[in-house]
Amino acid sequence: MKYIYFTKTLRDLNQEQLVEFTVRNKVDGLDLAVRPGYPINPDNATREFPQFAKRMADAGKIIGLVSAPVDYNRPADPKMIAVCEAAGKAGVPFVKMGYFPFRAEFQQEMKQAKQTLVEFGKTAEKNNIQILYHTHSGLNLGCNGIGLSWLLQGIDPHFIGVLLDPGHLALCGGPFPMEYSSIRDRVAMLALKDFTNAKGPGRLEPASTCVVAGRGLVAWDKVGASLRKGQFAGMATIHGEYETKDLAERERLLAQELDFFRAKLS
């Protein structure tokens, strides 16, 4: 399995520093956040992406995934089109789209979301990419494997795939073997993180906190067993969305997580 690193927490690094981070930490590449305020963003992606992709390739590293802003859920949005076109021209295989929030009418919103995914499939086909939908807990359609399997029924799997997240599935409460089985044939990539979920002082509801893998809710042994049984052959993006005091601590914890994931998921 190839491991790439999500640059959401590396917002302050420039393009050269991102390449150096990738090489220094011995990951296979990056899950590149192409978002406002980042070195490569929806406004400059057309111009900046080709040179960054070349820098990564020259270093022997890949851009395995482009993660668009979480509200980029309209295929006609010019900025989403620009992100997809830039990824396709650079040879990036996957683009993560935004989420469909649940508002009030589940069946109607599922129908609308399905129609939108059909249109996203056309964008993916045009740019020779696969667009991924992330299983993200909370008020999002397709927040777990079973719900997402309903949403993707009838959608061409060549162009719309799944970014499966064991951490968010744990927050949703579904047993990973069942969740994975429900959507297995569409899983293109894993998003790796762990969570705790507990009530704090003055809170009425539990609040989730991202923690280093192995310290939270995820039953990683079951995740690994399910992936091996299903012969998963994709790549994984390490999210590392916990707080650190500095970049050195982040890199130390990344090394720890890499060893952990290779032991549990291989």
Helix/strand layout:
Blueprint (H helix, E strand, L loop, with lengths): L2 E4 L8 H10 L4 E5 L11 H14 L3 E6 L10 H12 L4 E3 L9 H22 L2 E5 L10 H7 L8 E5 L1 H7 L3 H8 L3 E6 L1 E5 L8 E5 L8 H10 L5 E4 L8 H19 L1
Parallel strand pairs: 1-2, 1-10, 2-3, 3-4, 4-5, 5-6, 6-7, 7-10
Antiparallel strand pairs: 8-9
Helix pairs in contact: 2-3, 5-7, 7-8
- Main-sheet strand order equals 1-2-3-4-5-6-7-10
Low-confidence stretches: none
Task: Work out the strand percent.
Answer: 15-25%
Helix/strand/pairing class, anyone?
alpha/beta
Instruction: Count structural domains.
Output: 1
What's the SSE pattern?
EHEHEHEHEHEHHEEEHEH
* Number of helical stretches of at least 4 residues: 9
Number of strands: 10
Helix content: 40-55%
Give the terminus-to-terminus CA distance.
7 Å
- Give the CATH H-level superfamily: Divalent-metal-dependent TIM barrel enzymes
Report mean pLDDT, rounded to a whole number. Answer: 95
- Sum up the overall morphology in one term: globular
CATH class: Alpha Beta
Second CATH tier, the architecture: Alpha-Beta Barrel
Cα-atom radius of gyration: 18 Å
Provide the CATH topology.
Answer: TIM Barrel
What does the main sheet amount to? 8 strands, parallel, barrel
